């Protein structure tokens, strides 16, 4: 697959406004976007660190994926996202290799990226996302 870099690290938080304060005031990063992703039932906030982003995720619904994650595991690192090219052919290759995918086809994530998740069962317990900027195609 050969990802080009870590596109972002997703971190589940209970209160995004409180967390933004930590990233801005203590780490000295600037939140450059806040976006709600309705079909994922999350509010996201983004910070740039070099070419990698930090994506904070606050659930907008306790039944959503982040709501359930926090209930089970508490706040913390939720997923790591790798930047790839030709995401749908990567997904096909992963399927052919017997990797357990959450998304067999890419879908739209925050910032207009095409994204898909790989099941932690197949990755040693880490929820992995692969993503592609449509403009980089
Ligand atoms: Zn993500």
Notes on the protein architecture:
- The structure is a single chain.
- The protein has 137 residues and is an alpha+beta fold.
- It has a single domain (5-136), classed as 2,3-Dihydroxybiphenyl 1,2-Dioxygenase, domain 1.
- Helices cover 22% and strands 38% of the residues.
- It contains 3 helices and 8 strands, in the order E-H-E-E-E-H-E-H-E-E-E.
- It has helices at 16-26, 65-73, 87-96; strands at residues 5-13, 31-37, 42-49, 52-59, 76-83, 107-108, 114-118, 128-132.
- An 8-stranded mixed β-sheet has the order 2-3-4-1-5-8-7-6.
- Strand 6 and strand 7 form a beta hairpin.
- The model has no long low-confidence stretch (mean pLDDT 95).
- The structure holds zinc ion (ZN).
- The site of zinc ion (ZN) has 6 residues, from strand 1 and strand 5.
């Amino acid at each position: 697959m050969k990802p080009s870099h870590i596109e972002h690290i997703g971190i589940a938080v209970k209160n995004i406004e409180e967390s933004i304060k930590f990233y801005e005031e203590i780490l000295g990063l600037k939140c450059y976007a806040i976006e709600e992703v309705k079909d994922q039932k999350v509010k996201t906030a983004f910070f740039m660190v070099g070419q990698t982003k930090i994506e904070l995720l606050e659930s907008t619904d306790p039944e959503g994926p982040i709501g359930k994650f926090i209930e089970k595991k508490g706040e913390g690192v939720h997923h790591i996202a790798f930047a790839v090219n030709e995401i749908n052919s990567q997904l096909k290759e992963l399927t052919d290799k017997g990797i357990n995918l959450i998304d067999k086809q890419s879908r739209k994530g925050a910032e207009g990226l095409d994204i898909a998740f790989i099941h932690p069962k197949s990755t040693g317990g880490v929820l992995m996302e692969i993503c592609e900027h449509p403009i980089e195609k």
